[in-house]
Amino acid sequence: MKLIGGETLREKTFFVTTPIYYPNGKPHIGSVYTTLLADFLARFNRLLGRETFFLTGTDEHGLKLYRAAQKAGKQPKEYVDEMSQYFKDAWSKLNIEYDRFIRTTDPDHEETVKYVVERIYENGYIYPGKYSGWYCVSCETYYDEEELIKEGDKYLCPIHRKPVEFMEEETHFFKLSTFKNEILKLINNGLVQPEKYAKGLLARLQNLQDISMTRTKDRVPWGIEFPVDKRFTVYVWFDALVNYISGIGYPHDMGKFNKFWPAIHIIGKDILWFHAVVWPAMLLAAGIKHPKKILVHGFWTVEGVKMGKSLGNVIYYDDLLRYHPDVVRYYLLKNGPVDKDGNFSWNELKEVYKNELSNEIGNLVRRVTLFAKKNYPTIDGELDEDLMNELKNHIDKAKTSIEKFVPSQYTVAALSIFKTINRYFTEKEPWKTNDKNAVYNSLASIEIGALVLYPVMPEISRKILESIGVDLTPLLEYQKKTFTIKDSPILFPKLG
Ligand SMILES: [Zn+2]
Predict the structure, then answer these.
(1) Can you spell out the DSSP letters for 102-138?
(2) Ligand 1 mean position to 148 CA, how many Å?
(3) What does the alpha-carbon distance between residue 481 and residue 312 come to, in Å, rounded to a whole number?
(4) pLDDT digits 0-9 by tens, 330-380
(5) What is the pLDDT, as a whole number, of residue 148?
(6) CA of 135 to the centre of ligand 1 (A)
(7) CA of 156 to the centre of ligand 1 (A)
(8) Which residues of the chain have pLDDT under 70?
């Protein structure tokens, strides 16, 4: 029986990335969510049998980290070695399974950055000049005066609300303005999803300026040397963005690169400009194909309040881990902010745990496996077509939610499968009727439900499959099988 088929499966490979994170603190819910989205999509695509590559990592150069290391009394490399470990730790604890963790201090990455800069230079898109303007150290970016917040006689960064510095320096410019029409075309053709985020770019694109792509070495020594003029280091954004191609072998392993590129980039809305405008232009300038899609998400509020260090309400990854990582994953994907900002609430998380996970999924698996173990420890039967069609309907919705990038609807579809099985099992009353085939179909449906749930809850889903004696298989063609009940797991214990 076909679960998913048709044109969906035309593409044989899938490449997804997260931004590389600044390792100047522990990962918070924002970066957890971005990374989770990538892991979720990677797992779904693996389930479709696609060869998948999932790239994440840390962005380790630049003034901000240089200063943070100084403040900590450490050498920059020593500092980033330590801090990047927090991210690896977080991802492993949250059941995030990436294929490469790239660090911009990796030697192959540094070589690729130099190589790409040289290509862009040879192609005539880099020229020397002077730059002056308002600079936010935390963003590592210059701002136009109209973008800044004026407070008294001070200008503040619109993101950090900290005073910006007026700077003038020699630099090298990247001819970003050359690519205006090509970028406009990409954006009009749906490069950015959800589309609402693209609208903000269009106005700014009308007045597209060239941008500085180097910093003087004496001011920012902690960076990759600019190969065209060794008095400079490469501006940290240019360095960082290149990770998306260095991470899959450009130009050292073109076989791998050609197999996976172009990527789907997942980002928060605050870094859209660099990803949707600067990055495609850099690629075009270097003669490389533009990204396939840029999937954007919004911000989290916490208990209805904007999250911020100064407010002391930042949720870090280890705060979340008072719940099972898969529970955290389910809740974040269900409530996550894609087209608008989302809210995190401990109470709501608890309700979801009780009402959806424990009552609908946990109890069902426990009830059916207990009954089967006692009465039919090894069981086969015939698939109930009506039930299977109902499940297929939910799977279709799950698939559509991925195509439309609405992860919350995926969790709804997955839960609907378990609700359907609950209803079916209750209606069939096999404890009264000895309807063996109903038990068989409940188990087959639980297997299908666990497969659909896998991208969201990989560990729990494997536990369910193990309990009915089957392996994780692709969510494509369902193979009828004999079940041997191994266990009746309590998946979601009562909260203490
Ligand atoms: Zn800033």
Answers:
(1) EETTSHHHHHHHHHHHHHHHHTT-EEEEEEEEEEETT
(2) 10
(3) 53
(4) 999 999 989 889 999 999 999 999 999 999 999 999 999 999 999 999 999
(5) 92
(6) 8
(7) 8
(8) 6-8
Q: How far apart are CA 248 and CA 289, in angstroms?
A: 14
CA of 330 to the centre of ligand 1 (A): 32
- Both tokens of 120, joined, read 């862009």
Q: What is the pLDDT of residue 7?
A: 63
Instruction: Compute, in angstroms, the gap from residue 324 CA to the centroid of ligand 1.
Output: 34
The residues, any chain, with a CB within 8 Å of residue 490's CB and separated by 6 or more, are: 362, 366
Alpha-carbon span 241 to 159, nearest angstrom: 20
Q: What residues have CB less than 8 Å from 270, skipping those under 6 apart?
A: 159, 299
Contact (Cβ atoms closer than 8 angstroms) between residue 441 and residue 376: no
* Structural domain spans, the chain: 6-320, 346-484
In angstroms, what is the span from residue 160 Cα to ligand 1's centroid? 4
Options 3.40.190.10, 3.40.50.620, 3.40.640.10, 3.40.50.720; CATH for 6-320 is 3.40.50.620
Distance from residue 187's CA to the centre of ligand 1 (Å): 25
Return the pLDDT at 8.
64
Topology (CATH) of 346-484: Isoleucyl-tRNA Synthetase; Domain 1 (1.10.730)
What's the gap in Å between 163 CA and the centre of ligand 1? 9
Asked if domains 6-320 and 346-484 share a fold, the reply is no
pLDDT digits over 207-254, tens only? 999 999 999 998 889 999 999 999 999 999 999 999 999 999 999 999
One-letter amino acid of 145: E
